[in-house]
């Protein structure tokens, strides 16, 4: 079991590197292709939108394919997309390469989350999911800073070639270490689609869009913000991304640990604190030390929401969780795309490089409101279920209420 989770984490490491490394290389890519920073930000938005579309599309296409084989196919697609980015002669081709690579992202994490959860006891599911996502967070400590360093000194094309090689390592790890898991009997696409009729599933996905979107509103433009506002040298962006990644690793592990104990309280604390820290970042971004500390906190609080939100969807879409799990990964990236676009808008409007932090704070605060609403609706449904039991309501109705 640990080796299987390690294999999933290796794939997540490669995907996490390609998703986040572009943020540290936006100035280099923009300069090479002769486009503006907000235009280069479309490489973040395009990737995120590709995840949103690819998550359900690739999951549906893979409904008849064994999960292990599908994970291998997705990693192959990931490699192809990154090679295209590395060889792109013009900006449009690189954008296409980013989208191709992104099509594998959502389905990989969605299917991988289900596989990870099936490998452990029920009370350890969030921890297993967090273990897989550790690969994504460690990518921000090792893969992204190293990729940024390579891109700044050797060229960003070399960075994406290295990422493609990481994808090949992930593919080999999955082939070697992930066991063949049988698909649940009697579960068809219509059962997977039925999960989206559950209001709690939809609320969890909305929290995902807004909560992690708050992180990306700030982090997408971290390179120009830190160099042009805080006064860091260009080479310092690498180490700032290391700090962000360390925060993500810690937040992911803490989120996974406490989500198995008190899921909703964990969301209240992390989302509320995230909104506050993002708002403060508009001030701390003007001081090097304060900015560095804030970046760590944003990474920690942002990723502390990931295991509980992913487990929330799996719990609410019980019995047929694969598509809902993949779509929720798409929801993370829908938030990324939305916030990157909004951040570009406020910068283009002349509000400055710290303005995206206010966008992020507003998104995270809205996610907190939805979390409170979701818990209130759940308590109401439980109360109604108790009343139904007391009055002798039919058993099937009681069951429906509780689920």
Tell me what you see in this structure.
With 403 residues, this protein is mostly helical. It is built from 17 helices and no strands. Helix 5 runs antiparallel to helix 6 (125-153) and helix 11 (236-259) crosses helix 14. The chain is globular and about 55 Å long. The protein starts with a helix and ends with a helix.
In short:
With about 400 residues, the protein is an all-alpha fold. It has helices at about 1-35, 35-40, 40-60, 65-85, 90-120, 125-155, 155-175, 190-195, 200-220, 220-230, 235-260, 265-285, 290-305, 305-315, 320-350, 355-390, 395-400. It has a single domain (about 1-400), classed as Growth Hormone, Chain: A (Up-down Bundle), CATH 1.20.1250.20.
**Poorly predicted parts:** 387-403
**Measured on Cα atoms, how large is the radius of gyration?**
21 Å
Query: So what's the CATH class?
Result: Mainly Alpha
Task: Give me the strand/helix succession.
Answer: HHHHHHHHHHHHHHHHH
Q: Taking all residues together, what is the mean pLDDT?
A: 84
CATH topology annotation: Growth Hormone, Chain: A
Number of domains: 1
Q: Which class do the helix and strand fractions yield? A: mainly alpha
Distance between the termini: 29 Å
What is the CATH homologous superfamily assignment?
MFS general substrate transporter like domains
The fraction of residues assigned to DSSP E strands is: under 5%
Largest sheet, in brief, is: none
Overall shape: it is globular
Please state the second-level CATH architecture.
Up-down Bundle
Helix tally equals 17
């Amino acid at each position: 079991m640990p080796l299987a989770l390690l294999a999933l984490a290796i794939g997540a490491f490669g995907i996490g590197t390609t998703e986040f490394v572009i943020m540290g290389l936006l100035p280099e890519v923009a300069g090479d292709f002769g486009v503006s920073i907000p235009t280069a930000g479309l490489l973040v938005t395009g990737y995120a939108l590709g995840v949103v579309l690819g998550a359900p599309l690739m999951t549906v296409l893979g409904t008849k394919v064994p999960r292990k084989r599908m994970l291998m196919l997705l990693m192959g697609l990931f490699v192809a997309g990154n090679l295209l980015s590395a060889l792109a002669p013009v900006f449009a081709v690189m954008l296409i390469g980013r989208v191709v690579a992104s099509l594998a992202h959502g389905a990989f994490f969605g299917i991988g989350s289900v596989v990870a959860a099936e490998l452990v006891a029920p009370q350890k599911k969030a921890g297993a999911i967090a273990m897989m996502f550790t690969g994504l967070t460690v990518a921000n400590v090792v893969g992204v800073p190293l990729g940024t360093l390579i891109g700044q000194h050797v060229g960003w094309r070399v960075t994406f070639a290295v990422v493609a090689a990481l994808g090949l390592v992930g593919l080999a790890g999955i082939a070697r270490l992930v066991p063949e898991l049988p698909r649940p009997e009697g579960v068809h696409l219509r059962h997977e689609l039925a999960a989206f009729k559950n209001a709690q599933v939809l609320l969890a996905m909305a929290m995902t869009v807004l909560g992690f979107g708050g992180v990306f509103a700030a982090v997408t433009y971290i390179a120009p913000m830190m160099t042009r506002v805080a006064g860091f040298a260009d080479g310092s962006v690498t180490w700032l991304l290391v700090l962000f990644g360390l925060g993500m690793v810690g937040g992911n592990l803490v989120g996974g640990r406490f989500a198995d104990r008190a899921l909703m309280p964990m969301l209240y604390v992390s989302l509320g604190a995230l909104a506050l820290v993002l708002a403060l970042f508009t001030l701390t971004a003007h001081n090097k030390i304060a900015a560095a500390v804030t970046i760590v906190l944003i990474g920690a609080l942002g990723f502390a929401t990931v295991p509980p939100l992913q487990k929330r969807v799996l719990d609410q879409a019980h019995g047929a969780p694969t598509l809902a799990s993949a779509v929720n990964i798409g929801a993370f990236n829908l938030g990324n795309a939305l916030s990157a676009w909004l951040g570009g808008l406020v910068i283009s409007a002349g509000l400055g490089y710290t303005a995206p932090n206010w966008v992020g704070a507003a998104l995270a605060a809205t996610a907190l409101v939805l979390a409170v609403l979701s818990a209130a609706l759940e308590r109401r449904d439980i109360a109604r279920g108790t009343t139904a039991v007391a009055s002798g309501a039919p058993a099937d109705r009681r069951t429906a209420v509780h689920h």
